[in-house]
Each structure stands twice: as structure tokens, then as C-alpha cells.
Amino acid sequence: METVFEDRALVILSDDKAVLLIADLHLGFEYELYETKGVSFPSQHNKMLERVSTLLEKYSASEVYIIGDVKHTITAHSHFNWSLIPEFMLAISELSSTYVIPGNHDGDLLPLLPRNVTMLDVHGTVIGEDKKVGLVHGHAWPSSDILDSEILVIGHNHPTIRSVRTVDAPGLDRPDRKRYAGVIPVVLKSKLMKNCVRRELGVLENSEDCSGTLITLPSFNEMFAGLQVNSQKTEFHGPIFENRCVDLLDSEVYSISGIYLGTVKALRAKSLNP
């Protein structure tokens, strides 16, 4: 099994097939911004559909799993949900077999999905046979059987790096100033302490299978920011992080194309002295 990071997505490659994993589409985010704030942004769903299509074709992927937060509004009542999401999901399902693991924004999502899109359990699912990969959104505990997987992939926190630049202004007789330069989406890879999760779930611990890898994907929506891993005060959400079943500071940070950027601890130290 091989894992490939590309364009905010993760592709799982095995001998017989390829599977595309994406998280946190937050469809309708720009519409809600317009209705609540009066701020207008270009619609993102057609661009996201093109990106999904490109990835599916490039890797000949036969399945796509959306790991939570298909839509942005908590409920389905907004009119744009009923016009946007069924059309978008139908288009994806015509390209590949499509599965959804609901996230915390996916209340009442099922009526919006075409019949050929499969809604899975909120506590996740497992893909693969020889090497298993568990999938869950991250706002809820995974089911105990998912802990048998070598890798657990989640979304929910939308990890990013806060970019800061030092500006030199000698002509103004000012010292160097730090200036905010936007956020960059990243992938987080953490050591998962499986027995910590098992204790919280109330199931038996397994001394022969006590650790695994937790991968946190960024939001697939390019408009969406998220939690800044190099900010000193950032704490990740969800029961796995909140119950210290991973060490956030020792987690490794990768670009969306898979380039290693350093640990969270190192990036936070660097942000203090850029």
C-alpha cells in the first residue's frame, strides 16, 4: 500500500485499486457568507468538482470517500443546500463509487444525497484488506474495530500554517516588523496511542497493537482556513486530541504535496523567531 498527498487530498494506492480521500468540502460556505455578511465570493463547487475529477482520472481511482462536512450549514434547511448538494454529489457519483462519513456539519444530509451515494456510520469505516485504513471525520470517537487499522485518517480541524514575513523599513528608521502573510493548508501526521482511545471507549487494551498513525487532512475547500499549527495557543478539537491520545507538539507537518516541513514543536519555535 502507498499513500500519496496531492491537492489537499490523500490517495491510497494498492495492487488492485486506488481510493481518493477528501475532507471538509463545506459546500455552500460562500452562499452563507453572502446571506449573513453581505460578502460575495465566487462559487467553489464547480472548481472542487473539477479537482476531484482530475485526481480520479490521474490515479484511476474507483472510489472516493468524503470524510465529513459535505455541507457548511449545520442543518439542511437553506435553499442553496437543496439546489447545490444533490447536483454536486450526483456529478461525483457518476465519476466513481462515492461514500460519505458524516461530520458535525452534516445534519439532515441523507435526504440531499442521490441514491447511489452511500452514507456510512458517523463512527467511521475501514478500507483495505492486507493493510487497513480507518476513516472517521474526527468530531466523534471512532468505533473500536477501526483501531485495528494501521492508519486512521480524519478531517475536522483543517490544519494550516500561519505565514509571517519580516519587513525591513530602514528608510523609516523602524526596526524589523512581523507581517501576517496568510495561511497555507497542511497535512498533520501524528502518533496515535490506540490504548488511550480504547480506555475512553471502555474496551480492552491491546499491548501488541498500542500505536498507529493518525493523518489529519486539510479542508478540500480552498476558501476555508483552519487551525494554525504553528500558533502557540492552538489546540486541536475532537475527542482524540482533547483526550491527549496523540501528542500534538510531536506531530509531523507536511505540505499538501507531501513535503516534510517539520514538527509542530519546531514550527512553533520558528514562528517566535522567523
Description:
The strands form 2 sheets. Strands 7, 8, 9, 10, 11, 12, 13 and 14 form an 8-stranded mixed sheet that branches. This protein has a 6-stranded mixed sheet with strand order 1-2-3-4-5-6, covered by helices on one side. 22% of the residues lie in helices and 29% in strands. The two termini are 38 Å apart. The protein has helices at residues 29-37, 45-59, 79-93, 194-201, 239-242, 264-272, and strands at 2-6, 9-13, 18-22, 63-66, 97-100, 117-119, 125-127, 133-135, 151-154, 160-169, 174-193, 211-216, 252-255, 260-263. By secondary structure, the chain is an alpha/beta fold. The protein has 2 domains: 2-123, Metallo-dependent phosphatases (Purple Acid Phosphatase, chain A, domain 2, 4-Layer Sandwich); 160-272, no CATH class.
Key features of this structure:
alpha/beta; six-stranded mixed beta sheet; 14 strands; eight-stranded mixed beta sheet; Purple Acid Phosphatase, chain A, domain 2
Q: How large, in whole angstroms, is the Cα Rg?
A: 19 Å
CATH superfamily of the largest domain: Metallo-dependent phosphatases
Put simply, the count of helices is 6
Number of domains: 2
CATH architecture descriptor name of the largest domain = 4-Layer Sandwich
How many beta-strand segments?
A: 14
Task: State mean pLDDT (0 to 100 scale).
Answer: 89
* CATH class placement of the largest domain: Alpha Beta
Q: What class do helices, strands and sheet pairing give?
A: alpha/beta
Question: Beta-sheet strand percentage?
Answer: 25-35%
Helix content: 10-25%
- Give the terminus-to-terminus CA distance: 38 Å
Question: Under CATH, the topology of the largest domain is which?
Answer: Purple Acid Phosphatase, chain A, domain 2
